[in-house]
Structure formats: structure tokens, C-alpha cells
Amino acid sequence: MENLLNRNPLEDVLFVVLLYKNENFNVRAPYDIEIMGKKMWEWVALSGAGAKIKTTPCTAESDIISLVKPFVKDEKYTIVLYSDNPLITKSNILEIMEYFKNKGLNVLKLKRGFVFDSQHLKNCDSVLAPTNPIFDGEEFDAVDNFEMVAKVSDRLRKNILNFHMNNGVYIADIDSTYIDADVVIEKGVKIAQNNTIKGESYIGENTVLEPNNVVINSIISNDVVLRGAYISNSRIAENSIVGPFESIINRNE
């Protein structure tokens, strides 16, 4: 029973993210646009955590089958998604895979992507299946302009804040609080308005962030009080009081 519970549901899946060069964006690599501390393609890859993940450049003219085939080895299934779908989650992927397996399909064409039986993919030259309407929610909409980037950023920002609040973090004002995706915050932390926490920062238990702090790639230990401080690439010791209007950069206490 323990082995079943601990089994990785995507262990037999090859997960390919197509780094799509969308010409609507006047940037060299639109798939690298950062949203809440992660590149757009990294959000897509996160939904495939547990699978063997590969990336490959792609344009509107690319032959998807030819792009993906060289990556196919021993995995039983192959999922192909575009880098402009950062709202797709692990739950979406597991739901898709359950449907694919239960139906005994060889190929499933999604709104933005495909699922293949890998053996079928090795032997096919094109995809003839129609797009399946079941998986057609907004998480499958392409983020193909900067207005969409802003909308997606706001949604992901709120998802991150809700995650921390559900884990016992008090956030006084969600509209003025920014927390990147890779930030770790322990329970009992209190965050007042106008706080920004970026990068791979860590906030220890029972720490209080009074208004107007910026924390970037830093470790804030337990029971610290920050008062309008700017802290970058630093470590703040337990029971410290920092601020008001203090800058700490590249310092380990």
C-alpha cells in the first residue's frame, strides 16, 4: 500500500515543452517572460513535475512530430505542451492522463498540445485527431500578448497568496503584497501592507513584516521584525529588528 501511495503518477511520461516564438511579443524569447518569479515556460514545466521534462524551440511553422520524436526513449506516454500556457497545473495533467488511459487512446489533441502513446508517436508522421473539447478551459488559452501576461500574473499572484494564507500566514492586504513563486514562508508570519518578497527567499516562523519591506533572495530567521527595510542576498538572525529605512545587502548575520 505504501508503494502505491508514494508512486509517481508521471514516472512513465515524457513531458516536452515547446518554447514557442510568438511574434506578437516584441522580445527575442517570449517563453522567458517572467511571471511571479518563474519564466513562462517554467510554469508549464511545473505542471509536469515527476515526468522526464525536455524543452525544444518551436515556431508556428514547426513540424511538431519531427521536433518531439528525437526525445522519445522508453517512456510509455508523451505529453507535448506549448510554453504559452502557464496556467496549466499538475491537476490538469493528471486529469488528462487519466482520461487518455481510460479511453485507450493513441493520440489526444488538446487546445494547445498533444498526448501520445509513445510507441504510436514513434511510428506516425502526422496528427489526424480532432481537438478534444473536454479540456478547453481558460488554463488552456494561449498567453499571446502582454495584456494576457498581466491577467495571468494577477491570477497566479492571488493563487500564491492564497496558498500561504491557507498555510497559516497572515496577509493584511493582498492587493499590495507581492510574493514570488519560490518563496517559502513558515506559519505564524504576519505581513502588513506594501511588502515584496522575491526570488528564493525564506521567512521563518513568527516573523513580522511591518509595512514597506523588500526582501530579495534572503533568509529571514524566526521571530524577526522588519520595519521598512530593503534586504537583498542576506541572512537575518533570529530575534532581530531591522529598520526602519535600513538596507542590508550581501550580509550574513
Write the layout of secondary structure elements.
Blueprint: H1 2-6, E1 13-20, E2 34-35, E3 38-39, H2 40-47, E4 52-58, H3 64-68, E5 77-82, H4 90-103, E6 107-110, E7 113-117, H5 118-123, H6 146-166, E8 170-171, E9 177-179, E10 184-185, E11 190-191, E12 195-198, E13 202-203, E14 208-209, E15 214-216, E16 219-220, E17 225-226, E18 230-232, E19 235-236, E20 241-242, E21 247-249
Parallel strand pairs: 1-4, 1-5, 8-11, 9-12, 10-13, 11-14, 12-15, 13-16, 14-17, 15-18, 16-19, 17-20, 18-21
Antiparallel strand pairs: 2-3, 5-7, 6-7
What's the quick description here?
With 253 residues, this protein is of the alpha/beta class. It has two domains: 2-147, Spore Coat Polysaccharide Biosynthesis Protein SpsA, Chain A (Alpha-Beta Complex); 167-249, 3 Solenoid (UDP N-Acetylglucosamine Acyltransferase, domain 1), CATH 2.160.10.10. Helices cover 23% and strands 27% of the residues.
Can you walk through the features of this model?
The protein has 253 residues and is an alpha/beta fold. The protein is built from six helices and 21 strands. It has helices at 2-6, 40-47, 64-68, 90-103, 118-123, 146-166; strands at 13-20, 34-35, 38-39, 52-58, 77-82, 107-110, 113-117, 170-171, 177-179, 184-185, 190-191, 195-198, 202-203, 208-209, 214-216, 219-220, 225-226, 230-232, 235-236, 241-242, 247-249. The strands form five sheets. A five-stranded mixed β-sheet has the order 4-1-5-7-6. Strand 6 (107-110) and strand 7 form a beta hairpin. The chain is elongated, with a radius of gyration of 21 Å.
